[in-house]
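[Meeting: bench + compute handoff]

Bench side (C.D.) handed over the final construct sequence. Compute side (W.E.) agreed to return the predicted structure before the next meeting so the bench team could plan truncations. Sequence as handed over:
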Amino acid sequence: MKGLENLLEDGRNAVCCGPMEAVSPHGFSAQGGSIPLIRMAALMGAVLGTLWYALDPRHRKTAQENIRLALGVNGSAARRIVRANFRHLARVFAEFPGMVRMGARNIGRFVEVHGVEHVHNSLKKGRGVLILTSHFGNWEWMAYGAPFFLPARLNIVARPLRPHVLNRWVTALRERSGNRVIAKDHALIHALKALKRNEIVAFLMDHNAGKKTGVWAPFFGGYVLTHKTLAHIALKTGAPVHPVFNRRLPDGRYRIDVEPEIPPPPLGSREERAEAMTAAFNAAIEARIRHTPEQWYWIHRRFRRFRLEKPC
């Protein structure tokens, strides 16, 4: 195990010489007040992420096992991805409080958005819009900035945090820009009400589901239990589902991509169609992960119930 000084040096090197090298002053002249935030978050993420990797064997092991299973890489390659992943996640956590600096006038200093016209067009149908996303890139910045580029209110389905005081603080920050947070336990009724108001409802679909709430859907060459609520809501209401993902750019900002609608299957029973849609949702998430694997939430035990063959 490396000494503390060496670990801290590794973290500093990740900022200066590694994949986060673009957080140097060059190229930031137009970024205004976002420069200190991006620099500080990059430094904190690199140093704290390096320490986290060294001091948390449980999550390190989970991430390595997930990556080897999903991506088929050897141990050395998996460890490289995990080290980068811990630094990325630590940076996301460090960036969280600073998102309150975003506003309509400076949103371009934090994110750039592509494809938002897909949501504009879908809202014209008057059925609301459903967003498929995941714990990828900086999902908090993406959601917080949504009111500054989306034409309707964003409702975010989220699992309440513990302890309660932490959940209150996080929820207050998430809603400060104009979003509404819907507790996962009450998602269905509030999501349906929001869609009736022609609003937008976002679901993060990359966490485990139970046997009662999920279906076995393809994911990285096997099958995992995946929440079916989003598919059932889409089929019930006719609301279009748009994948929306983000990834960190070399300059420290995030690129948000709004993708075209995932169309519902035309044939089959309600359950068969929901299962087919859920498979399409997982395929969209998997494609993003494969493109930039170090920016996903590998520390979650997503493959705990992974099966090579679809269970009966």
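W.E. noted at the follow-up: The first strand starts at residue 111 and ends at 114. C.D. will use this when planning the next construct.
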